[in-house]
Amino acid sequence: MEKNTNYLVGVFGDQDILVKAVKALRKKGVKIYEVFTPYPVHFLEDALGYKRSWMPRAAFGFGALGTTCAILLQSWIMGFEWPMIIGGKGFIAIPDFVPITFELTVLFSAFGMAGSFFVSQDLKPHKVPQIFDRRQSDDKHIMAIDLAKNSLSEDELKALLQEVGAEEVNNKSFTEREKKASFFDYVSDLFTKGVTDSARELKG
Amino acid sequence: MAHVDVDLKNVQEQFTFDGKLKKNVLLIGGIGVVLFVLGAIFLMMGGGHDDHHAAVQHATEVASVASDGAHGDAHGGGHHGEFHWYQRIIVDFWMSGVFFTGVALLGFFFFALQYVANSGWPTLIMRVMLNFRQFIPVGGIVLLITFLVGSHTIFHWTHDGIADPNSPTYDAIIAGKTDFLNVPFFLFRMVLFVTIWTFFGFILNKVTKAEDQDMSGTTKYFRKAQRLSVAFLIFFGISESITSWDWIMSIDTHWFSTLFGWYILAGWLVTAVAFMSLFVLILQDMGYLKLVNENHLHDLGKFLFGFSIFWSYLWFSQFLLIYYANIPEETVYFIDRLKSDTYAPLFFGILVTNFLFPFFVLMTRDAKRKTIMMKIVAVVVIFGHFMEYCLLIVPGSLKENGGFGLTEIGTGMIFLSIFLYLYFTGLSKGGLIPQNHPMLEESVHHHT
After folding, report:
1. What pLDDT is attached to residue A198?
2. Taking a C-beta distance cutoff of 8 angstroms, is the pair A8, A171 a contact?
3. Secondary structure (3-state) at A34
4. I need a labelling partner for B297 at 20 to 30 A (CA). Which of A33, B36, B136, B342 fits?
5. Does any domain span residue A199?
6. Distance CA B296, CA B431 (A)
7. pTM higher than 0.90, yes or no?
8. Same domain, A137 and A106
9. Do A146 and A164 belong together in one domain?
10. Are residues A68 and A159 in the same domain?
11. Is residue A134 domain-shared with residue A169, that is, in the same domain?
12. Pairing verdict, β A168-175 and A3-12
């Protein structure tokens, strides 16, 4: 089992300490790979320096597409393909189209957003998650630091993490199999071994 | 952007109403008076119309008499007799009075709503919402006087003999509604509602001010305010609907709409939120409300954006069904407005100011967090909804003799000046921040 990328995993119990730690580390030039929290933590995105998501723009685009499609569809049906007189109105009566246009705008926007979310989070079929610490979905905040991308040595980083308030600092590596795991291997591993995790063993 | 470390014992601010702000508020009133007098003089000289509308007006009068069969039919023909210039002024007073009383009521409703919803973010600006209540009693009195002076001009159903089968002006449809629409009951409802709203405003004000004095950290006052707010909201839900039928819908007595109460509520509410945002920004420009930041503004912006869409939704729901069903007794309401050169531009204009403009301008997150954007949108929305009130009240009572001209804007500015004067005077009494409110800290650290 070859270990080629090594991560340092800081475990934090308190969200305020976490946010302060992120700021302090970034100030010292440490590049943080990712932070995992069980619930949304305010100010964390700002502290990590994340850019604004492109999702709202995608939502607007899909909504506008929905509006266009709805108007074209209804005009084509009611005006050209099968003209019908309803309530003595013209064939293409705009007020009649508003409810359907509204609904299709919402529908396109919603589906588009769901799709955009999968794309933006790289959620694809057979995606295998890289779990740094199982407690990231339970009661701890997990900060992962990619050693290869930082100029500081492992010991220095470890000392820094402890200094800013990490409760534990662990090493985490993904084996070649884990990194390029097939989905079926992952599922069979789940059944045979449980979620592999260096920090805490499964109970029982 | 980050945690604010604030000493919560020392957040109180004292607002004083003087200097430039007072001058500006009085200036608005002054300009209003000038415009009003000018408009009134034009009305007296021009037989009812200011310069701008005069040319268009004469053409429409002829056209509307000739073309609108349904128009004359449903309204039993010329019930207002000859038109006098002062009739328009009475209707203008009613229009501005209803508009600003409603905005004051809905601003206060929004305050009570925060208590009932247990929401923490607006605690810093609770006093900004609370003081909308100041105008309610004054608006009520102005409306009462206007009604007593000019009820025949505004409301067709108040005419004598309209419910008497032997009278030449007998109107069977209105006669069927006289159990509800009669002058004593109307006045009773009006006085009762305004009194109870004022009472709730008074007592909630007292409770929150008492909270300021109590340093023991109790939630007693908060719970009390919450219970009072629930009671107010229940009463408000019923009274606001009835008020909108009384004050606005009964002007077009033959016509009715089942979602009218909602529609009026949405219009008043979005205007109240626009005023609220504007007040917060004005106070911040003057150096008050130091702890309010763009996160609070963002939430106000979301309400402004959302309620603009809500108003448009209800407006359209009302319009679409009537348009689609095409029943004469219902469509007459829109024919009055759409087949008229005076009102048709307003009819489409309010869709731009009240829906398209806030919808596209406030759509992005950044726009809601920018003070200048919020200011522009708030002013446009307030003006747009003022025009909407012209459209709701004037066509039903004045027909083609009305319009949106100098007297309307003048009266509106006079009322606005009174509204602002009372508002800021109320705000200067007691602290600007509810310093012992249990959710103050949540509001200080609010982050969206």
Report:
1. 45
2. yes
3. strand
4. B136
5. no
6. 19
7. no
8. no
9. yes
10. no
11. yes
12. antiparallel
Reported as a single tens digit per residue, the pLDDT across A59-112 is 999 999 999 999 999 999 999 999 988 878 888 888 999 999 999 999 999 999
Q: Which CATH number do you get for residue A159?
A: 3.30.70
Confidence of residue B418 (pLDDT cuts 50, 70, 90): very high
Radius of gyration of chain A (CA): 25
State both tokens at A83: 């003209």
**End of a domain among A98, A120, A142?**
A120
Among the partner residues B2, B325, B364, nearest to A43 by beta-carbon distance = B2
Structural contact between residues B236 and B111, judged by C-beta atoms closer than 8 angstroms: no
Cβ-Cβ contacts under 8 Å, B2 against chain A = 43, 46-47
Q: Which residue is associated with the tokens 């630091």?
A: A145
Say which range, A52-66, A134-148, B53-67, has the weakest mean pLDDT: B53-67
Report percent pLDDT > 90 for chain B.
68
Task: Tell me which residue of B214, B159, B158 sits closest to B437, measured CA to CA.
Answer: B214
Q: Which of A56, A60, A87 sits opposite B324 (nearest CB)?
A: A87
**CB atoms A95 and B323 under 8 Å:** yes
Helix (H, G, I), strand (E, B) or coil at A31: coil
Beta strand pairing call for A141-146 and A168-175:
unpaired
Within B117-219, where are the H helices? 126-130, 135-154, 172-175, 183-213
Catalogue the E-assigned strands of A53-196: 141-146, 168-175
A10 three-state secondary structure: strand
For A17, nearest residue in chain B (alpha carbons)? B3
Q: Which of these ranges, A146-150, B129-133, B199-203, B301-305, has the smallest mean pLDDT?
A: A146-150
* Mean of pLDDT values over B19-27: 93
Q: What would the DSSP string read from start to end of B419-433?
A: HHHHHHHHHHSS-SS
For residue range B150-178, what is the model confidence (pLDDT) as tens digits? 899 999 899 888 888 888 888 888 888 98
pLDDT of residue B55 exceeding 60 = no
Among left, alpha and beta (phi > 0; psi -120 to 50; other), residue B290 is alpha
Containing H/E element for A163?
helix A154-163
Asked if B359 reaches chain A (Cβ–Cβ under 8 Å), the answer is no
Question: Are A187 and A145 found together in one domain?
Answer: yes
Pairing of strands A34-36, A3-12: unpaired
Q: Cβ distance B100 to B386 under 8 Å?
A: no
Asked if B20 reaches chain A (Cβ–Cβ under 8 Å), the answer is no
Q: Which of B349, B388, B405, B401 is nearest to B60 (CA)?
A: B401
Tokens at B290, concatenated = 């130091």
Nearest chain B CA: its distance from A43 CA (Å)? 6
Q: What is the pLDDT of residue B79?
A: 47
pLDDT band at A204 (very low <50, low <70, confident <90, very high): very low
Which run of H or of E encompasses B102? helix B85-116
Q: In angstroms, rounded to a whole number, what is the distance separating the alpha carbons of residues B130 and B426?
A: 9
User: What's the token pair of residue A144?
Assistant: 């992962």
* Domain containing residue A87: 55-120
Q: Given this model, what pLDDT does residue A51 score? A: 87
Domains held by chain A: number: 2
- Does A169 map to a domain? yes
